[in-house]
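Notes from hallway chat w/ T.B., transcribed later so I don't forget. T.B. wanted the structure written out for a chain they're using in a teaching module, and asked if we could keep both sequence and structure tokens in one place. Agreed to drop them here.
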Amino acid sequence: MKYIIRILSLFIILQISLFAQFGTYNHAELDWTTFETEHFVVHYHNGTEWTAREAVKVAETVYPLITKFYDFEPSDKTELIIKDTDDIANGAAYYFDNKIDIWASPLDFELRGAHRWLRNVITHEFAHIVSLQKSMKAGRNVPAGYFQYMGYEPEKRQDVVRGYPNIIISYPIPTVVIPMWLAEGMAQFQYPGATNDYWDSHRDMIIRDRVLNDKLLSFKAMESFGKYGIGSECVYNQGFGLTKFIADKYGEDVIPELAKNMSSPFLWNINTIMKKSTGKSGEEVYAEWKSHLTQGYFAKTENIRENLQFGENIQEEGIAQLYANWAGDDEFYYLSSKGTDYFSLTSLYRYHVQTKKDVLIAPRIQSRTFASKDGRYLYYSRKTEANKHGSVFYNIYKFDRKTKKEIQITQNRRAKNPVLSKDEKSIYFVHGKNGKAEIYQLNLESEKEELLAEFDHGIQVHNIHLSTDGKTLAFDMTVNHGRDVLFLDIVSRKLTSFLTENYDERDPYFSPDGKWLYYSSDGTGIFNIYRKSLENNEIQQITNVTGGAFMPAVNGRRELIYSHFENSKYKIAYLKVYQPVEATKSEYIENYEERDFPMLTLVDVEKTEDRDYSMRYSKVFVLPKMMIDYGTPKPGFYFFTSEILDQFNLFGTFSVNPDAEHDAAALLEYKKLGPTLFLEYYDISRGLYNKKSTVNGYPGVFDYHFHLQQLILGASRPFSDFHHLRFDISLSNYKSSVDQDIAAAGIHTNGFTYDYYQGLNFMLTWNMDAMLPSVNAETNPNNGFEIKTIFYRNYDKFLEEFGVNKDYGTLKEIFRDNNYWKIEHEGKWHQKIFQSELVGNLNWRMGWISKPDIDSFFNFFAGSAPGLRGYPYYALEGRNLFNAGYTFRYPLFRQKNIKLGMFNLQNGFVGFFAEAGNAWSRVKGHKDLQIDGIIDDFSGVTKNLLKDFKRDVGMELRFSGFSFYGYPTAISFDVAYGLDDLTVIDKEDNINEYGKELRTYLTILFGL
């Protein structure tokens, strides 16, 4: 009966891998407080009260405006959660939970305009809550359903009833179906007349640049994220632009009408929904909008295109080339995202303008860099790895070019954008916390700090620069909309306004001769580089571009470098000689300075009584599923609920087929302590019917019923950005019940039940993840490594035979103890080949069991999808395991938008792989593989071991995209061929041959 046990044990393993996850940082150090207003329940932790009070003022002010516009109100008070645990600027609307997470740090992003953070983000996220709840097809309790399919590879061994899965499909059927451009467009549109956000010069720049370069995202491409470069950001921008166009042309009431029509259970396609709402399909409305943009942008930029003045693009490899800064007159430092898919993954480079030599200095740098006079030391800021509580903050670093070592200057200081003093004894930097900005001076010798300036809550300070005489700091600041430039006298601490027009003026930079302040301004509606005289206040425009010019830096020869936004990326432009641009040659938007976006007057919210936070829970969400398992329908459901602060989570599933075979599992997580504590339970039953066999020469028919239970108690915790530990204790009990019908012997028995496995196991899992984020990380990872090592101490009892209970005269189980150590190790290493689109993936697996005579039930298996794909899972087994494989993968296409029903196929890859390995318990010539014998004859053991390794080759196809606009979908189809013959004699003495045959595998999941 061991053949049955194997497949059921495998099912348990698959369930564990599905549900169990490594814990995240829980921030148990925080004390949480709650208060309520008319429409919101607000939760904030120590140190964030101002942000919480300001946030709820914004929320209560916009509540009637947004709910009236959509004619919809949430059924419960919306939970508003304020966090300031990290230097992260973000907001998230969990519309099924009816809660909003807000990080207190304001957004400072080179692709976004400057707006007062809390007013913008609160309004945006609450607009999500209302618009998406109105769009639901089935209410908040049923987020989605699932269709699932599990198919199994054919198995020749008679002691294996069902092979390993070779088809795994899990496909969602969501109850909110909305393209991403519209979801984000409605959130940015907010409500008629909204001024907490608006169509600013950054949004206009990104779309204008796309239109002028004929790179506007198509209507299909706008439906989902997952784009390279700034493509995903363009989904936001084009979504806002198209939503505004719809409101302007077809009426503002069309926006809530779209949400209403999306809630229909009979409407799933945005083209149909748009036609019902506007009378025209989505493609038709998009075509109108594109024509409107094309005519408008080409007309408005005609004069500029005839009078361009810009620098030579000398660095343009990556998506982002930012914050260049001269170090002398011939070389400069700058940030670049070259070699990565994401805008913010910038590294520090040095470039020499004469030799054009470009050198990588240090990774993950995120500020302008200042060099010491002798060029040895570089000063910058970047995010530090998570501290003991899991918080990630900006800190200041010094890089020694001679020793190539980086020295951290500040600890957990939230210090950004440092500037080195003229005497090189101090650093000036910006500090922010709980919506409050300050400028400090740090003495590098004494490590003492001095506060130079502090600002009202809600004011945001960005970049700073020191004057040539070392007496004045220039900095740009956001109060409401756009930025202004101010001066700070370092000695007197006096603040002076310098650039405060009704434009966005930013990135101040003093010229080395002390006569000019260079900066970027959208004075015409397009960002260009300007300079203002420090002697007579004369203003001169230096560049005239159709994209945008930012972050100027000037050397002693008056040569200008800056970040030039062009063709959907920031480039470093070098302008050696320039003359002031005449105003008539740069006109773009008439009377641009007369724009007016008055700030919304916030309502007074009565200060309600604070109380200590007590756990609050979301609704119980139910996700129906229909699974087809080994050809049998098995309907069921998932369910989950979570505590509002994610301090307690419950997830479970249940399904049952017509034969009453069931799968049940539940996972509880408790996250109020440093480590995450969890409890997992699995309960699975299976049946095997009409199994024919012979007993003592008599033919019989047997029905088997199996009931497997496993309870796991454990804890998990990350210990850095890369290391995670998890400790488990598991208790397992497997039962079997047999119905026998041996007619020739007159034996007919029902329900003979017994235990065949009892286990007490301890497991420590160490996981390392050093993957660099990439757009297709799930289907084509291309940089970094993943390693997992598991240490086991197992105390397993396995049925050996039956004896007779002397007291009762009945059969009883006789178990054999299998106490042993076990180690499993696996890893993946991904790399680009010669920095091309060809990617190499090395993967390996190893395993060792200490007990030489362990029962084969506990063996490793080396075939199928986890190992050698050219052989079935159960063809290769033993108490030792090793296999390795290498895959070359190349893109067939990228960033396409091929619609297949509700699936938008975006990327395709082809791969070719070779694998080798084996699982074994003995090596020829060596009865038991003890350490002494291996040492004495290492070469002989190795030679015989490798001689018996099996090999395969194959091809894989991988595809990625999105289903129903927002659900990532990954597809993999593998074909493998075993190169070596393999013969296996099973428990029933049947001879089974493998190899020299094609084997196929198919998966359709969220990720691979």
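Follow-up for T.B.: DSSP finds twelve helices and 53 strands in the chain. Might be a good example for the class.
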